[in-house]
Give the backbone structure.
Amino acid sequence: MNILMMTSAAPEYAPLSTSEKRPPLGVGFLISVLKRCGHQVYFVDNYLSPSRILQTDFFIRNRIDWVGIYANTICYQNTFAMLHELEALREKKIWDGKIMLGGPHTSVGLETIPDFVDHIVLGEGEISIQKIVSGEETSRVIRGEKVPDLDTLPFPAWEEFIHRPYDWTSRWVDKSPVYTFNTSRGCPFQCAFCSVNAVWGRTYRYMSAERILDEIERMINHYGLRVAYFREDHFTLNKKRTMEFCEGILQRGLTIDWICESRIDHFDDANFVELLARSGCRALYIGVESGSPRILELLKKGETVDQFIRAFDLIKKFGMKTYASFVVGVPTETEKDLRLTHELIQRIQPDFSSKNVYVGLPGSELYDYVRKHELYEYEDPGGILYLKGHDKRVDRYYRGNPYYKTPYPYRQKWRKVKLRVRQGLGWLWPKVRTLCRLPVCQRRM
């Protein structure tokens, strides 16, 4: 089979930053499993650089049988447009292939996906995509089978990434190239603002230290890796695996730097933190979220202000840099809560920090709370909720950058009209809602 895999372009405006351009490792795994099955796979990364491939004769020249699109909620507006362009090609008899859709948005926004999409994968896709392409799986909506042992996955298709102009640097280190890795899936925690559980589930699964070390050695030998960046929610969560990884770096004599994102579990153990530093860990990205105990409890972080203080002090003691991420503007937050956050930043003195304006992400507990209590003033095409006062917070925390502001003016009258229409249409409402979420220029019947 000839298969085209694509990502979606970033929107003109978004509540979260889309400036960081790194290889889409999830798509990379899918490409690798398809190639391993003998398929010819093409890849277009519209998120890195928007293309007009759907307006060319690419499909005819390469006899494309399948198009697979990776959909995330931030970029769903472009995903929706591409899906309709593909359907138009089929209606005009220009192309007669099939469309499959995966990515985080399918798990949290299934009702927004057009009926003509042939297959929709919720969750993991490596096993399901092989069955779809082979014809073994014929269902339209598929709950993706979880890979039982992540070590059995092939390495991501780096041959598709390495020649493209991704960001191969990090401001935390002065070496390059910096290559990203994703070695775990799922999360056992219940943070109210996060939608990770809706996609991967609560079971935490991970690759072994040996598998990670083998991949790092391969990246050193083939692509000149100097820094490994583990882009996942909590790389160090499994203490045993983390220590095996650190000891493996030292035993194999791998003179690399590495960075990871994590919680602060285990960062009260000086021996553990010292081993991280000795093995080459140079920086840690930590989601602190708030300096207010009340807000931390509301967000169900499962961590305390005192824990953050002790962890940051210990990390600094061993010479590693820190990035502390905070979220502001969550429901019920007060100026006192914000003052406590500022005081915590002053106390822990991270090397880098950010205050991220809260928006409601589909699939999270707090999202349901915002919707239920009508605390938002605008809903974008992917279902993201902009809270009341969003633009004022953008002025305060993002220096008024228009990129982050509410993308389309909200009208109070439309809300009342929508309620009447919803009541009148009954079961037809989901289809109408999907259509009306889009700007006029992108509405297709």
Notes: The mean pLDDT is 91.
